[in-house]
Amino acid sequence: MLIPVRLLLLQHFFALLQLAVADLSVAKPIGGSEYSVSSNTVSIEVEWTDVGRSPELDTVTQYVFTLCTGSNSKIQAISTLATVPATEITGNRYTVSIDREAGASGSYFLQVVAVSPEWIAIHYSNRFTITGMQGNKPAPSVNDPQGPSPETMKIGPNGGPPPIDSASFSIPYASQTGSYRFAPMQTQPGSVVTATAWTRQNPTSTCSFYATNTATPEWYTTITAGWDYTILTRMNDVHPRPLPEHNGGWYKPAEKMTLTTRKVNRYQQ
């Protein structure tokens, strides 16, 4: 599933975050490395170093590894490769396996998300190349070998958000009662309109107001599912004709008139 990845749906926590310096630095894969698919997969060792800032790595409970492509300003997540408890990590390294059907041959980088009870740290490796891939998702070449800048967030006092489970998005919004709500993905419009009347996709929800100030919110944010489709666009390479009349932009005004003009004398007493 191709989803716009800015922080793996964690961009909605900006109202709660506090920026801090990076806690770890991804050392491997090394920028400019080349990997080839063998036996339908390619294995890549991910290694990171502790730079001694918050969150401390001994407080991390989980790591999430995601294969990404695209520019630093437009990150595209290709596939979540592994979600690993920190207890299974040895020596700040982990080897991920990438299926050849995940995407096309090209330029990639890895996203490493470290989750602790109070922090979420998002880091990226430098870019590398994979050949022998047979998937349909494009992996365009990017001249900059350095990956996107890291981001570190301090989340709410009650700890981190719940794990993102695809089943959470199927529960009607009005029926959810947790601190974090889940909204379904905006679906791709069809090419043909068959409906003859307007209908609601979801029932209306009630609204109530606080009578006094409250110390903590009832819920923190809404997490929206990512897209499962790709919008393809291209430039119009048809050259315009030289004159407006050739492009349908010129016409004779008289041909558009339905009434003829006539002179009206000014009223005089």
From TrEMBL:
Residues 165-265 form the Yeast cell wall synthesis Kre9/Knh1 C-terminal domain. Pfam families: Kre9_KNH, Kre9_KNH1_C. It comes from the Eukaryota. The keyword Iron does not apply. Residues 34-130 form the Yeast cell wall synthesis Kre9/Knh1-like N-terminal domain. Coiled coil: none annotated. Residues 1-22 form the signal peptide. Transmembrane segments: none annotated. GO terms for biological process: (1->6)-beta-D-glucan biosynthetic process; cell wall biogenesis; fungal-type cell wall organization. The keyword Signal applies. Involved in cell wall beta(1->6) glucan synthesis. This is LANO_0H18118g1_1.
